[in-house]
UniProtKB/TrEMBL annotation:
<dbReference type="Pfam" id="PF10012">
    <property type="entry name" value="DUF2255"/>
</dbReference>
<dbReference type="InterPro" id="IPR016888">
    <property type="entry name" value="UCP028498"/>
</dbReference>
<protein>
    <submittedName>
        <fullName>DUF2255 family protein</fullName>
    </submittedName>
</protein>
């Protein structure tokens, strides 16, 4: 399912997304991790600062489900690995949202791009 325009706008405008993929039992949520998020082409994306070695990233890709909290909302979500040309637009979204941050360069590096995840809203 896609995000409503309002929800996506609220999440994209905030800097407080916490991600909690399911644990291996597929029931228990992992510890929420604060992470940068961006919207591109009407979808919500996150990246692993430490690339594919990020613990939350490994769980998200393995379990494909979890929960996020952002902009005063808590939503059950699905996770999907992303690759390809969309990464250029995601880079642009990171540049626009986090231009003043000293952490921007690592978030648009090849390592972080390899750990790009689309977050899909569940009904």
């Amino acid at each position: 399912m896609t995000w409503s325009k309002d929800e996506l706008g609220r999440i994209a405008a905030t800097d407080d997304l916490h991600i909690a993929p399911l644990r291996d039992d597929r029931v228990t949520l992992g510890t929420p991790t604060w992470i940068w998020s961006v919207a591109a082409d009407g979808e919500l994306y996150v990246r692993g600062y430490n690339g594919q070695k990020s613990r939350w990233h490994q769980a998200a890709i393995r379990q494909k489900a979890g929960r996020i909290t952002a902009a005063g909302m808590t939503r059950d979500v699905a996770f999907e690995a992303v690759d390809g040309p969309i990464n250029d637009r995601i880079d642009d979204a990171y540049r626009a949202k986090y231009a003043a941050s000293p952490y921007l360069a690592p978030m648009i590096s090849a390592r972080a791009r390899a750990a790009t995840v689309r977050i899909l809203a569940k009904t």
